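User: I'm writing a tutorial on reading structure tokens. Could you give me a worked example: one chain, its sequence, then its tokens, then a sentence or two explaining what the tokens reveal?
Assistant: Sure. Here is the example chain.
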Amino acid sequence: MSKKIIILLSVIIALIIGGAVLVFVPRDVSIVTSSSGLLTTSYGFYDVNPILRIKLLSASMNEDKYEKIRSERQAALEDAFAAVLAADGEAFTSEYSNIESLACELGDYVYYYHTSDTAHVYKMDKTTGKISACEMSGYNSFSNEDLRNRYEEVDHNYTVFVDITTEALFDSYPEFRTCIEKLDGSFYCGYTYVDNGRVFFDMKNTIYEFLPSDGTVRKVASVGPGETVEMVVDI
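And here are its predicted structure tokens:
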């Protein structure tokens, strides 16, 4: 075999290896989706390559890890919300609502509802204990204003229509609204995800990341029309 052929083969092999590394090694976030069948729910686990912006089957996420992360998040949020309940007798809580519907821990604050106030969400500073009222964003899943006006107090059903994580994001990042409204499509209030300080949302089967540092968004990945995004994890 001539020297030129050996060199050419070496270059080709190097390009193949480099291409494989470029595709399979960089992983930015993991995405967990669910699809419901007639009797069962199946999960999809993906990692996103941040360079090529492609979605791959996850190298590490699986159902056991997903459940572990979910349980740990719930436990941490329950601890944060316990401090709210101890400080604010008006804080809404219900045995019929899961913890993610009752509270959101974001930055220095824990966000929650007051039982007697359907016009605001509240936040407690975790360091000082100071409690503040925040205007609602206006993004909710009430089908009409008449339905919205039926609620004079916060109850379990109210927390289904109004998403506490979304309200927390709009209060913490005013430019979040501008970014969403620049995109083509309707924003559903429940499709927001926060992990390790990173903010994600799902719009028209596309996951975007909101970047608070410069008030912009970037596309992360697309999901199938039959998939519901359950979790986005910073890796």
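What the tokens reveal: Confidence is low (pLDDT under 50) at residues 13-26. The two ends are 46 Å apart (CA to CA).
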